[in-house]
Amino acid sequence: MADYKTEATLTMAIEASKQVLNKINLTDKDLDMIVFVSGTPEYFWPPNAVDIHHALKGKEEAIVYDMNVACVGMVVAVEQVSRNMLANPQLQRALIVGSEQMHRYARKDDAVTYASFGDGASAVILEKTEDLNNGFIDSAYKVNTESIEKIVFPACGVSKLYNAKMDDSEKRVKWENVNNNNAFTSTVHLIEKLLYRNNLTPKDIQAFCFSQLSKKNIYKIIDAFNEDSIKFPIVGTDYGYTGSASPFMAFERALNMGQVKRGDYVVFWSVSAGSTACAMLYRY
Fold first, then answer.
1. What values do phi and psi take at 195, rounded to 5?
2. Which end of the chain is more exposed for a tag (fewer CB within 10 A), N or C?
3. In the 8-state DSSP scheme, what is residue 171?
């Protein structure tokens, strides 16, 4: 849990951004793009990414914007920014930072969200290089809107936040008993399609960095692929469920454990309320 008296998703994002810049000895002036990702942003406007740019003292020519695709947001942001960089010769480096305070908006009487939601931020830097063997390869999406009204934040909708008769619980996350087995089961087909069209198999992938919403369902995917569980880093048991940041917190774990090295294939996947899912293939 964050310190809600002093920390917001914006302050967490700024801190994560500073850490990743320091880690690889880059400065704010090296960034051509800054993208902030959150389903629990501190502000609707100005864009939180502008605040991050200001805190980092970034250059005037940078592309700066926010993105919200709920829990799949950071996977989508990295995928979209990667495609943008490949198409735009002016973009050399981009910062993508996902930050969520999921626990902050959980209802205390909800055993699922209040017990499992956590707060976290993750920042990555994409850099264009001459190495054509590494980097972004491909992605695949799936949309299924059958449970669109089941998971909603804020539950009452933004237009009713100032209704004096609105109970506080209605301003928090609405989480009905959604069977997410189908979302995770469809993941197998989505990833299989992604690998097939790139002439790869699950054996070729060194790490599967997934949404940390459900350890149970990650184990189901492990069984479906008949793969070693070490390839599926799990950090939700340490940090709780941190929304859009969670697949990249799992990726950091894989890097720190030495599970992923340069040249290894990595699959990122997450699913968001609604729902929409994205699987992305990268070569690190």
1. -70, -40
2. N
3. G
CA dihedral 228, 74, 189, 214 (to 10 degrees): 60
**Quick one: tokens of 202?**
């699950």
User: What's the pTM value of the predicted model, to 2 decimals?
Assistant: 0.94
25-68 confidence digits (pLDDT tens):
998 899 999 999 999 999 999 999 999 999 999 999 999 999 99
CB atoms within 10 A of CB 85: 21
- Give every CB contact of residue 16 below 8 A, 6+ residues apart in sequence: 97, 99, 121, 122, 123
DSSP state of 117: B
Single-letter amino acid, residue 165: K
Domains of the chain, with CATH numbers?
9-132 (3.40.47.10), 137-283 (3.40.47.10)
Single-letter amino acid code for the residue at 268: F
The DSSP code for 235 is -
**Separation of alpha carbons 240 and 224, rounded Å:** 25
Closest to 232 (Cα-Cα) out of 214, 242, 182: 214
Which residues partner with 69 through β-bridges? 71
